[in-house]
Amino acid sequence: MGFTGHAFVDWDDTIAENIRYFREVEAQISLLIAGRTGFDRDEVQRRGAELDVAVARQMGLVRESLAVAWLTCYREFAGRAGRPVDPAVEAELRRLCAIPYETRQELLPGAAETLRWLHEAGFEVTIWTAGEDAVQRRKIQESGLTRWIHRQTVVPEKTAERLRDAIGDRDPGRCFVVGNSRHSDIRPALTLGVAAYHVDVETWAYDHLDVDEEDPNYHRLTHIGELPRLLAQRFRLAV
């Protein structure tokens, strides 16, 4: 098939599992800190989640930010408990915080089929993802889906300006963004007047943001597998 359009596709929690690995580790860390400081695990987990977002906004979406947040959390609760900081506990926290970034991701249902459909339907497929370049590219490579991907664009944080740069001289009217983050995927696209397909699934507080769901460029999905049907209507394609 000939050229149809330009697809800018988010990776984490749109194509591949991601938040689940963080949730599992955060539960282990909260239990560890609670056990060593005597505080309630739920209180520790809430504070850790607050620090996770605050540190990520300060440092960017780099892997070290998770360890910084939870080390800060541990030191804070140890101080409140009047207990010395244990280097062995800090080493274990660092080990646990590395797990989500090193785990081989599972693909989400319909993800592989959707990327293949996009490729075969004539879309230029760009993986549009935020984080550390080496980490994100390793995830993509390990997925086995690179045959359906034309470009990989990894940025420290997604913004309207960076999306404009990624689009370059492509016709915005032939572009769309699909992703699960209102903050990182949907708002930048709507700001530029680009069609935004929102995979409305669980995400972390960093991604929480109100967007104008009445905007004609906003489209809501419950999972990535719904995308071909919606694009077929927009671009008059067969599914």
From TrEMBL:
Question: InterPro entries of this UniProt entry?
Answer: HAD-like_sf, HAD_sf, PGP-like_dom2
Q: What is the name of this protein? A: HAD family hydrolase
- Specify the species: Symbiobacterium thermophilum
> According to the entry, what is the taxonomic lineage of the organism?
Bacteria, Bacillati, Bacillota, Clostridia, Eubacteriales
